[in-house]
Amino acid sequence: MVKTTATASAMSSSSSEVESEAELIPSFPNDIALNIFARVPRSYHRTLSLVSKPIRSLLLSLRFFDARIALHSTDPIFYLTSSDTRDSWYALYRNPFNPSLFAPFRIPPIPSSSHLFDAAFAVVGPNIYVIGGTVCGSIPSSEMTSFFCYGRGGVPSSSVWVLDCRFNRWEEGPTMLAARSHAIANVVDGKIYVMGGSNSRIMAEMLDPAVGKWVELPCPFMIDKPTQIKQWIYLTDVCGERKWVEHACPSVNLDSVRGEASAVVDDKVYINTEVGEEVYHQVVFDARSGKWECVVEREDKLYLGSVLVDGVLYKYNPRGKIGGFDVKVRVWKESDYIDEGWRRAENDTLSILAYADGKFYLIWGDDTVKCHEIEVKWNGDGELLARICSTQEIVSIPRHYAKHHCLTVFL
Q1: Among 77, 104, 124, 240, which residue is least crowded by beta carbons within 10 Å?
Q2: Cα gap 303→284, rounded to integer Å
Q3: What range(s) does the FKB95-like N-terminal Kelch domain occupy (predicted)?
């Protein structure tokens, strides 16, 4: 049975449904009123909730969210969290009077007594899944980094927390089969696939939220298990020349993967993993067939940790450029600096490229988070062009936030 912790603002669905039967709009049937309200942009919902108690109850009902999905009227909401997921979360809502601007709404942190670092994240429908991570006990907030966490006895976790973004409510989800930290998580056809980040024999597992139970995914790439896969590596030959050669790799270690080094293309999960100092694999899992393979072409590996839009994987270079990898023609292009005077250092607290509602957003910052709306397009010569359209300062971030994550949920 899933345990639930609700915020003060959350209302039970049963009471919401009862109150929603009250008259919403005078002289209008409630079904028609529901159809009207479901089309209103989410940025206006706070104002709309002040009109009457029945309308406020409707906006917090499951029926209302189902109607928005059926009408394809959901809006993208960005959720920000730090590396320590017990810190407060922020939902970024659009300003109703200026859609290019965002207003932060603070969300209570995970109701846990321990600090949790380096978790994996997945979004399924209105829910954000916080998967595994490194659990730490009582550490001063000024030292809240994963470095101190590991140094003070942090251990991987098999726990799963679920944020229902409709009601800002946290629930404990199904516990994983293996404890994981620095794992990767991807969603294919509504199912969550988690890989790596564990010394357990269970290197990969899958959760179908509708079933609520993790299932082990048989994986041929086990730690210290010899493989017959060949991979390209860059070596110096007997004449002193550096060149690519094909090399029989002794093993593939999924424990070396990181969350930013994966992508889903055509129901296949692509994962970058390291084997030795100069040997790199790109492991591929086909979610439809359940089969694994390894990409051998040294030049044809996908650029992962990216945003997939119309067959192109886009990625932000922290030094100030946008790159795009065309999956079909397997060509990488990079824009000029999006701002010649703005070249960010690679160790910025936050620099994430997001895509929603037909627009790109670059969310970045150190002590203060800002959001750039970026226009990205290809010209007739196949060149990638990018420019900043607008900038909005969002929220001040405590200095102990070591790293941030940005998740997009449609509500």
Answers
A1: 240
A2: 13
A3: 89-222
